[in-house]
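User: Sequence for Heparanase-like protein 3 below. Tokens please.
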Amino acid sequence: MARWDELNAFFQKSGAKVVFGLNALNVRETDGESYMGGNWDLTNAASFIQYTVSKGYEIHGWELGNELGGKAVGTLIAADQYAKDATFLKWVVEDTYEDSPLKPPLLAPGSFFDKDWFGEFITKTSPDIVSVVSHHIYNLGAGVETGLVKRILNQSYLDGVARQFSDLQQLLKTSGTSAVAWVGEAGGAYNSGHHLVTDAFVFSFWYLDQLGMSAKYNTKTYCRQSFIGGNYGLLNTTTFQPNPDYYSALLWHRLMGTKVLDAKFSGTTNLIRAYAHCAKNSTGITLLLMNLHGNARNDVSLTSEELLVVEASGVTREEYHLLPEGGDIHSQVMLLNGRALTTDADGNIPRMEPIILDAAQPIAIEPLSIVFAHMPNYYAPVCS
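Assistant: Structure tokens for Heparanase-like protein 3:
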């Protein structure tokens, strides 16, 4: 277990919250095709969990299996069998952590969504066998495909995954389960993504849209594939410099609160993606606006029957405008309000300062750009 000890030393130093995926195929029997039957042998998993607890290692969650349910990749375990296995694992976790004040949640199935399979699994693990129902998203297709950018910039294509979020939320609401939804893994384009697409500025349109949409449908956690590795990592695998999505995620984390508002764009150019949240650690609201049009600038004004505007002379808002260096959406350098976002010689993240503008003026969104706008003078009752 020396390697596990070394990893936990790293987790402690880095402050990482670790969800560990357990092998769900141990001692199963195949039907000669894609189905795997028989009960899961959890002896190895139980021993591993017991060792982890004995060493005092803090684990944020235990997840059963990887892409073995729903629309499985190669090998499928039936939903009723997966529910039985999750129940056995729940007993192990409860017993092993009996004297611990913190019991890590159980996650499953970590698979691609299929409404019928997930529906049966959720029903048979209700009300509280699993704490998290996790699913994976690679809706853009294979990384080697040449049409990735067209899909990323296509409103209808981006909207297509909304049904998955919506259906999962409906299943959770109607089943009586206490479980919540997580996106346990999402890299957009499978098989390691595509260089200068999934590690470039253009991918932030997909990534931020995913964060906005998942939050809209009450997803509690969104795990990006990956922090480092492949062509879809948040860090460059050679230089360890942050790719554009790192900074997009950082701005989301700093500006967007956990309460979601209903935002819709209405205009002559229907290529604006709009999301709104209560501001994080501040008054007012934060808007996320993305212009998918390659040529047209948009000037956006905010109207609402529910938002109250706190009137005061000299009211301002904060804007964070994101553009690719040189106007090339395949660039791996992101500009914030005209300044390149790059680390210094010591690897420190640059300051991410907004521009301050008159709150009465519309928000100007350049072609193929992204804007976060913090509007502290807008009051929404749900944000109080």
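The chain has two domains: 2-257, 272-383.
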